[in-house]
Amino acid sequence: MTPQDFGSGVLSGMEFQRQCEAAAFQAAGSDYYAPVQTVGDFLAGRHGSREFLTTPTYAPGVRPVDLRQCLPSFLTDVLARALPYFDRKIPGFAHPGAPMTGVETRSSAPCRILRNRETFLSLGMAGVYPIGEGAGYAGGIMSAAVDGRNAALAFLQKNGHTINDKEINATIKL
């Protein structure tokens, strides 16, 4: 993506997210149902299939739509090329019945709370440990968990505790 795709202002990315979410909301009926489309329908340029490989679990429900109504073509074109590519790497990834639900537009924080690299303490707020996605240091569940683990270890070390990896792994049952 380039700034021409969604704007060059400081908050243009967030406005782009809102536009995609609004389009998804409308496409699915404006009643909080999520838009859904099978990979097979998406790749074939059709919609409406309800024969899912796995049943979508989103509550209050899902409504079959053409996800191309929710996202701009520069994204859906790349997605249409990427699905078969990933299927070659991970067989079954692009199974024709796999459901694609909604549009995931939320990302990590668009800003970062600065922190000390060793102690993980905030540079601007005493006693605060900014960690994970909300603080701008992770991009998903696993990286947020690792960031939290590392901050916890920094906290323990700062407070005079010494814990080795064997003890940590036994504590969290790895």
Describe this structure in words.
The protein is mostly helical. The chain has two domains: 3-101, no CATH class; 108-174, no CATH class. The protein has six helices and three strands, in the order ααβαβαβαα. The longest helix has 18 residues, at 141-158. The protein is elongated, with a radius of gyration of 21 Å. The protein starts with a helix and ends with a helix. 16% of the residues are buried. The mean pLDDT is 88.
How is the main sheet built?
A: 3 strands, mixed
Strands of the largest sheet, in order across it? 2-1-3
**Rg from alpha-carbon coordinates:** 21 Å
Provide the β-strand percentage band: 5-15%
Mean pLDDT score, rounded? 88
Report the strand count: 3
Q: Give the CA-based shape.
A: elongated
- What multimeric state do the chains show? single chain
Outline the low-pLDDT stretches. none
Q: How much helical structure, as a percent, in the residues?
A: 25-40%
Structural class computed from helices and strand pairing: mainly alpha
Order of helices and strands: HHEHEHEHH
| Structure annotation, total helices | 6
- What is the number of independent domains? 2
How far the N terminus sits from the C terminus, by CA atoms, comes to 39 Å
Briefly say what this structure is.
The protein is mostly helical and 174 residues long. The chain is built from six helices and three strands, in the order ααβαβαβαα. Strand 1, helix 3 and strand 2 (62-64) form a beta-alpha-beta unit.
Looking at this protein, list some descriptive labels.
174 residues; mainly alpha; 3-stranded mixed β-sheet; 6 helices
